[in-house]
Amino acid sequence: MFIMAGCYEKVDWEFPAFGSKPVINSIMVAGSPVRVHVSLAVAYRAEESVIVEDAEVRLYVDGEYAETLVYQEEGYYQSQLAAETGKEYVCEVHLDGFPVVRGSVIIPKPAGILDIEYIHIAGTDEEGIVYPALNITFENNPDIFTCYEVIIYTYRNYGRVGQRYHRAWVINYTDPVLLNEGLPITVFSNEIIEDDSYTMTINYATGRMNHDYIPFRVEFRTVCQNYYNYARQLHLYEYYSEEPFFTGGVLTPFTLYSNVENGYGVFAGFSSVTSAIIVPEE
Q: In sequence order, what are the residues at sequence separation of 6 or more whose Cβ sits closer than 8 angstroms to the Cβ of residue 253?
């Protein structure tokens, strides 16, 4: 038997003075207009960030000035250009009183979905409810480090409201590539994939007791490494914000990933392919 005992002492600690910095965020999607959100970071426990409506947001493509983004609403600035794969996008944000804030990204080219196999009964959860799975086969170049994300959407009919889709909840991670990532998310790299294609097994919940044949579609994203790093850090940040993580008796903080120069935020991008809506057959 091990008995652990200890004592606690109240420590009065004041948070250090906080110097505000610009925050710029953009997840660029191939084929869609570039959108950038600009705000100012606020101190810990402040109610909300401060959006910026008067910034000058310049966009450069492959080293050449392309345009100045137009302010829309709620801190968002938008370009007239649609993002393309293989090009480098650099965004410069000019704000009075701050050095120029920069973010950059190269959107990777999409990898294709080769096959999707539906498995009606893949297993049973702790409550005795069966769940389905998908075997998704996709293209891969083992000679180039590449990051991906898989999203499964399920469709349901709500009568007069019509058909709505939901992002499926992935459960019971068993695929070796996903397990190699060490986190329960479907963002992963091809670090251990050695062939020019790979078949990934994903178990997911339908949210229904009777587990009928629910239509679905699959979105397969090829994401930049900034997106990969951000997604992993975001999961840790959100999870341990609710359940503090202690190592050796010390509270371990997890901050959000940032790749922005002279500020905070994330500049990332992805391209994707999406399957048609698939209706499983009995």
A: none
Task: Give Cα separations from 212 to 71, 131, 247 (angstroms).
Answer: 46, 10, 44
In this prediction the pTM is 0.85
* Residue 193 within a domain: yes
**120 assigned to some structural domain:** yes
Are residue 179 and residue 102 in the same domain, yes or no?
no
pLDDT at 13: 39
Q: Following DSSP, what letter does each residue of 101-124 receive, concatenated?
A: EEEEEEPPPPPPEEEEEEEEEEEE
Last residue of a domain, one of 176, 201, 224: 224
Token digits of residue 103: 């973010």
Q: What is the pLDDT of residue 11?
A: 41
Residue 268 placed within a domain: no
Burial (CB count <10 Å: 0-12, 13-18, 19+), residue 124: exposed
Note whether 49 and 96 are same-domain residues: yes
Please check whether residue 255 lies inside any domain of the structure. Answer: no
Q: Residues in the chain with pLDDT < 50? A: 1-18, 244-252
Give the pLDDT score at 232.
95
> Do 102 and 153 belong together in one domain?
no
Instruction: Write down the pLDDT at residue 209.
Output: 58
User: How many angstroms separate the Cα of 143 from the Cα of each of 179, 190, 195?
Assistant: 21, 10, 9
Contact between 92 and 79 under an 8 Å Cβ cutoff? The reply is no
Q: What's the one-letter identity of residue 23?
A: V
Provide the pLDDT for residue 129. 83
Q: What is the pLDDT of residue 115?
A: 98
* Domain-terminating residue out of 191, 224, 257: 224
Query: Do 36 and 124 reside in the same domain of the chain?
Result: no
Are the beta carbons of 247 and 183 closer than 8 angstroms?
no
Strand, helix or coil for residue 242 = helix
Look at the chain and report how many structural domains it folds into: 2
